[in-house]
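Predict the 3D structure for this chain.
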Amino acid sequence: MLRTLVAVFVLLGLLAGWGCAQTPGTEAAPPGEAQAGQLPDLSDQAVTGKAVADLADFICGCLNDGGTVPDWASVQTVNGRPRRVSAAEVFVLLARTVYLWNSSGELPATVPITPQDVNPPQLDAEDVPQGEFDPESGREINTEDFLGWCADTVYWVDRLHTIPTAVWLVDGERLSATEYLAGLAICVQYGYFEGDLLDYIFLPAYAPPQTWVKAFEAAAPEQVAEEEAAAEPAAGEEAAAAPAGLEEELAPEEEQQPQYPSPTLVLLPEPGKQVSGVVDMLAVYSGPPADYVVFGVDGRTKTITNAPPYTYRWDTSALAPGSHAFRARIYGEDDALLIDQVSAYTVVPPNPAPGGQAK
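Done. Predicted structure below.
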């Protein structure tokens, strides 16, 4: 009997020691690995809203000191561990925080670090400023217009896992990915530490992270080489002359360009229809190749997409009943405007459910 009691006490002691070994924060198991039959630990894949505010403050400090975005930063995850995040991940963290903040009216408790494999933007030459940084020279961007892009940006990144190269504001002004990132950091910093936002965001010509610039510079020579190779005649062709009497026949054939039908656009639902609640707008386009489509409502740009089918989920619930203008602009090569179509739709309230409650 005594031996049995001793064995029981020893067993209880072992069980108690095993339970302590599994206490979170100890080295019993690698962070993020799940025990058999348990949910995985995702605490290193999310940060607190306060940590994002501190991150925004750090980015703003870098912008003020050197006029550029750092290649990486450190942020504290929910489990209290520091985590290194790239400039692209910083962009997504800030955009998602602003989007959640706008939706709920308060700083989110936690923000996920997702997607894990987000790609940096493909810069254009105009996105890499030349010369020294001048903090006094820049432009003012309407804050409300700027913030209206966050929902579409988060949707874009989650779907394509790539940061957009640029966005176009209501007045048609182009905002690069670097300027967008800087504006996000400024909004989060002011919103958290000052308690309010300014009507306008002042954006000097901030330089992108060096990792983005190096990727841009590495891609540029390859592109130039491909264009030069396509333009140069093959070996022996330069010395060869067309037989006499065939020059006039060959010249027109060489100058022929692809023939496309005139650009046309069909919107669904059809213009003039009544719409209510959330409406999935579809733009059916035919004609010369389109690079991207811009959708707007009542003079405000709502989204830009380059992925057909060209769609936009239009939430009419916040609009006043009556006629509203829906605008679709199709852009082709070199930002050539192919179609600019404004259509009228009549917004009506949703049908009330029994008891007077809206559906």
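The chain has a mean pLDDT of 77.
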